[in-house]
Amino acid sequence: MSEPATVLIPGWMHEHARDMLRSQFNLIEIPDCDLEAHLTAQQRAAIRGVACYTTIDQNFIDALPNLEIVANYGVGYERVDAAYARTRNVVVTNTPDVLNEEVADLTLGLLISVVREIPKATAFVRNGEWKTSSFPHSRLTLRNRTVGIYGMGRIGRCIARRVEAFGLPVAYHSRRPAEGVDYAYFPTLLELASAVDVLISIVPGGPATEKTVNAEVLSALGSEGVFINVGRGSVVDEDALISALRTGTIAAAGIDVIVDEPNVPEEMLALDNLTVLPHIGSASVSTRTAMADLVARNIISWFQDGAAITPVP
Q: Which residues form the D-isomer specific 2-hydroxyacid dehydrogenase NAD-binding domain (predicted)?
């Protein structure tokens, strides 16, 4: 009987994935990605799989000469150099689909919280103010709005279905028109922002989307505009967003992601028309466990059957 393959976990990983991998592989766990500090050359040569929630760059891949698969925890995999991995015949996987509905639920919840000022209303009650006064009527409403979705992928479609259920028209922008989608398509993000008054960003991070939600896009959204970001913080020019909220260029925003998590800029925290969440889009126990399960099953499938379940393109 052959020896089990050696799999590495550098840094944090969900315990469910750890347990699954520990039961089937020779599992090595190290606190970070400094391979030379924690592993001998013999150990590095033995590693054939990696389960990760961290940056995997060219140097990391080169340091593992017999690496075959990198299983990323999360649907976004911009921190893994998948393009370089392909040149080394290393398969990269992610965890799509299992989190789509959860993120879409959170997105609509965040949108409603922003428009109806739910966090402020909760604080109003907790602070005892309801005993002496009435909570001010919310200035904004979802009624008679058009919602633009920046990124009509799997999660974008789930969000769009929920928006439709609210009786609101949907439009979108992505790199190309999505197959099987009847929503109005705009070839540029600026054109989309000009046509809607709610903009929801659900695109992945990376150079192609960095700071694409900029001052011009926010200005096009308008003074009654609402911006929601549940994709990646890097997509937004944060200085432009802060300025737009301060000056009334847009009315309000809700974000689940920022550029330098968890370090929220003080300028953001000072804005009473901004709702900030701690990156909890998929953060339910059941969904995060399902993501961990898929991380482990990708590696198990690779070494048992020679094929990963969810390889990235």
A: 108-281
The helix/strand/coil state of 267 is helix
Task: Determine whether 143 is an active site residue.
Answer: no
- Which of 224, 261, 232, 255 has the alpha carbon at shortest distance from 242? 255
Contacts of 90-96 spanning 24+ positions with Cβ under 8 A: 90/61, 91/302, 91/308, 91/311, 92/311, 92/312, 93/69, 93/295, 93/298, 93/308, 93/309, 93/310, 93/311, 93/312, 94/310, 94/312, 95/290, 95/291, 95/294, 95/295, 95/310, 96/154, 96/310
Q: Do residues 92 and 70 lie in contact, with contact meaning Cβ atoms separated by under 8 Å?
A: yes
Spot the catalytic one: 15, 129, 164, 261.
Answer: 261
Low-confidence ranges of the chain (pLDDT < 70): 1
What single letter denotes the amino acid at residue 217? Answer: V
Residue 2 is predicted with a pLDDT of: 75
- Whole-structure pTM over 0.90, yes or no? yes
137/310 Cα distance (integer angstroms): 47
User: How many residues in the chain?
Assistant: 313
Task: Tell me which of 232, 238, 288, 297 is the catalytic residue.
Answer: 232
Q: Are 230 and 256 in contact (CB under 8 A)?
A: yes
Catalytic: 279?
A: yes
Asked if 141 and 89 touch (Cβ cutoff 8 Å), the reply is no
Question: In the annotation, is 246 catalytic?
Answer: no
Over the stretch 276-287, which tens digit does the pLDDT of each residue have?
Answer: 999 999 999 999
